[in-house]
Fold:
Amino acid sequence: MATKTIASATVRAVKKRVLPSRAALVLTPTAVQKVKEIMSKEEAKGFIGLKVGVRQRGCNGLSYTLDYATTKDKLDEEVKQDGVTIIIDKKAQLTLLGTEMDFVEDKLSAEFVFNNPNIKGTCGCGESFSI
Structure:
């Protein structure tokens, strides 16, 4: 499966949250709007949504990645919310359970932020984490 990397993301350790039952990942309205904006530019290229993955990186071990998804693999999780599709890579599923995906923009940066109650530690810059 060919994917095109679009961004890495920041993670934040948060206190436990109660999410709707069976929710693997919940998007804030701001994140939904940004995903719609990103996908509207790429719709004609055959992408079905964004894919969240995890890879070994940084001083704390893991970091999230965001790519364009052309297919959903057999063991991937699919989250559909408010007209957007997020595919969660099988390797990232356990690290994302109960997580809120947000999009935060300020004067210096604009990025997706994963507010994750499962994180035990993060690095100083917030790019990598440990479970």
